[in-house]
């Protein structure tokens, strides 16, 4: 059970959520609803110091144990996650739910599985995890060196075949959903209908610029975001950034995806070359406040152009 008084002053008000620290990597714990917590990662990139864990995780305290939402990028981040959970509850981590296939969503699975946790993920998510595992480990080795030592890629042994699975874990009801591909193919959401909290994984970025990669189907991502809005969540724990409401998610993610697709489609319709498109769209005042705009925006336009041109 949660320890009385712990994090009580974190509160449930949105202003308190927006004030949560995100600048330094310290496994900041934010209470987002009764017995539901976000673990806030830094907005900076992966470094040896943050063990490549520059994303948000979370956990739900149930009557029979803790549900951990994503497991970090390395085995070495496992003890830090455990410490954050132990500061709130004496309950053990009994389940790990993976929402995506990027390194910091699941490469810490082995650490928790060795300690008896059950790994849970949709089949779609697991398929992408298995496809990208070796390349992600190689990239982490280049990025954080020996901080990746001891990390073994382990996926859920019995992935769930459906796209909308209801989970009853420790007497708490939640839904693991795939509403369409997003930052990676097979990205999923964890929806807690009773509290109105949505763990969005990398479907939603707040406070920082999202990244469109070659394997980020940008039109699908846009459509998945729109499908997500039908849930009408009260609070969204994004893949990166401070938890916030749906309006903030729209401003920082949904509106940007709409803008990218709309503007690049117009370029292609007018036979505008890619270099001219990059110059025309270099400024995007509505989104320039987002962290990493300067380094990611032009790449996003470039990748969107290549994707939509190919399609």
TrEMBL record:
One of its GO terms (molecular function) is hydrolase activity. It comes from the Bacteria. Pfam families: Lactamase_B. Residues 54-240 form the Metallo-beta-lactamase domain. Keywords: Hydrolase. One of its GO terms (biological process) is antibiotic catabolic process. InterPro entries: Metallo-B-lactamas, NDM-1-like, RibonucZ/Hydroxyglut_hydro. Coiled coil: none annotated. Belongs to the metallo-beta-lactamase superfamily. Class-B beta-lactamase family. This is MBL fold metallo-hydrolase. The lineage of its organism: Bacteria, Pseudomonadati, Pseudomonadota, Gammaproteobacteria, Chromatiales.
């Amino acid at each position: 059970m949660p320890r009385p008084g712990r994090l009580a002053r974190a509160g449930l008000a949105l202003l308190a959520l927006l004030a949560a620290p995100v600048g330094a990597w310290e496994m900041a714990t934010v209470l987002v609803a009764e017995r539901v917590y976000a673990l806030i990662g830094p907005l900076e990139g992966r470094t040896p110091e943050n063990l490549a864990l520059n994303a948000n995780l979370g956990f739900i305290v149930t009557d029979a144990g803790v549900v951990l939402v994503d497991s970090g990028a390395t085995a070495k981040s496992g003890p830090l996650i455990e410490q954050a959970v132990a500061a709130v509850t004496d309950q053990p981590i009994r389940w790990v739910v993976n929402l995506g296939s990027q390194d910091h969503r699941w490469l810490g699975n082995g650490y928790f599985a060795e300690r008896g946790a059950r790994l849970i993920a949709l089949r779609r998510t697991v398929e992408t995890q298995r496809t990208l595992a070796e390349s992600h480990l190689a990239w982490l080795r280049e990025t954080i060196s020996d901080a990746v030592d001891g990390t073994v890629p382990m996926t859920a042994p019995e992935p769930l075949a459906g796209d909308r699975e209801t989970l009853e874990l420790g007497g708490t009801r939640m839904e693991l959903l795939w509403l369409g591909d997003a930052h990676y193919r097979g990205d999923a959401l964890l929806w807690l209908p009773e509290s109105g909290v949505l763990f969005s994984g990398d479907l939603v970025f707040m406070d920082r610029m999202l990244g469109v990669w070659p394997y980020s189907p940008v039109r699908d991502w846009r459509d998945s975001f729109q499908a997500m809005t039908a849930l009408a969540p009260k609070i969204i724990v994004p893949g990166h950034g401070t938890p916030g409401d749906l309006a903030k998610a729209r401003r920082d993610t949904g509106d940007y995806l709409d803008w990218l697709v709309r503007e690049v489609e117009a370029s292609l319709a007018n036979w505008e070359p890619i270099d001219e498109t990059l110059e025309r769209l270099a400024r995007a005042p509505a989104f320039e406040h987002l962290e990493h705009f300067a380094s990611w925006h032009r790449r996003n336009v470039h990748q969107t152009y290549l994707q939509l041109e190919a399609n």
